[in-house]
Amino acid sequence: xxxxxxxxxxxxxxxxxxxxxxxxxxxxxxxxxxxxxxxxxxxxxxxxxxxxxxxxxxxxxxxxxxxxxxxxxxxxxxxxxxxxxxxxxxxxxxxxxxxxxxxxxxxxxxxxxxxxxxxxxxxxxxxxxxxxxxxxxxxxxxxxxxxxxxxxxx
Length: 154
Prior knowledge:
CATH class: Alpha Beta
Structural class: alpha/beta
CATH topology: Rossmann fold
Number of strands: 5
Number of helices: 5
Distance between the termini: 36 Å
Radius of gyration: 15 Å
CATH superfamily: Response regulator
Order of helices and strands: EHEHEHEHEH
Shape: globular
Strand content: 15-25%
Number of domains: 1
């Protein structure tokens, strides 16, 4: 399929830090790949979007989830466990993108079936580079599974 015909890749960015959120939104806006970015600033909203509940009944399911671990209301570990336990969501790749480099967090994320774990760099250019690497690997090299249009209820 030619690039002009390629459908936008739908990404759910779950990030509570407004600065990081803005930088990542800007980096994806400059992407060579068409990206439709949806953001959630806490774990509860992320699950509402993914389960298409409340005001998100018509939300599209993402092709890729970028998930911070340290979130308000429902932390990223809980969100990851729920995603991977849900039949309609478990195939969506989840990239943990967090400030924690703690071995216990890395092990816990992989135990919960995260698809990869990236520690957010502190410097602006390095964060922009990480977003570019995510774009290159996950959006151009990797073959993503087709996502269902709706979450199966029940």
